[in-house]
Amino acid sequence: MTDSFLHKGLRKKLVEIIQQKGIKNQRVLDAVGIVKRHLFVENFLDKRAYVDEALPIGAGQTISQ
Predict the structure, then answer these.
(1) Is this structure's pTM higher than 0.85?
(2) Are 40 and 49 in contact (CB under 8 A)?
């Protein structure tokens, strides 16, 4: 799976959402803006990877909100 313009835009939007929730630490915001969360979830969840919610990644694990 590639890192499309859609995924880049969704990451940017997620950064904006968590900033609005009060996250101010620039290192955290930078990390959220860099990590390609869609690579850690099943293909059918790729667009939801950038929603502010936990998602299953297999073996009973989740990617954190």
Answers:
(1) no
(2) yes
Beta-bridge partner residues of 57: none
What does the CA dihedral 37, 43, 45, 51 come to, rounded to 10 degrees?
30
pLDDT reported for residue 46: 86
What are the pLDDT digits (tens) for 20-51? 999 999 999 999 999 999 998 888 888 899 99
Residues 6+ apart with CB under 8 A from 41: 48, 49, 55, 56, 57, 63
Judge whether 4 counts as a catalytic residue.
no
Which among 2, 20, 64, 65 is annotated as catalytic?
A: 64
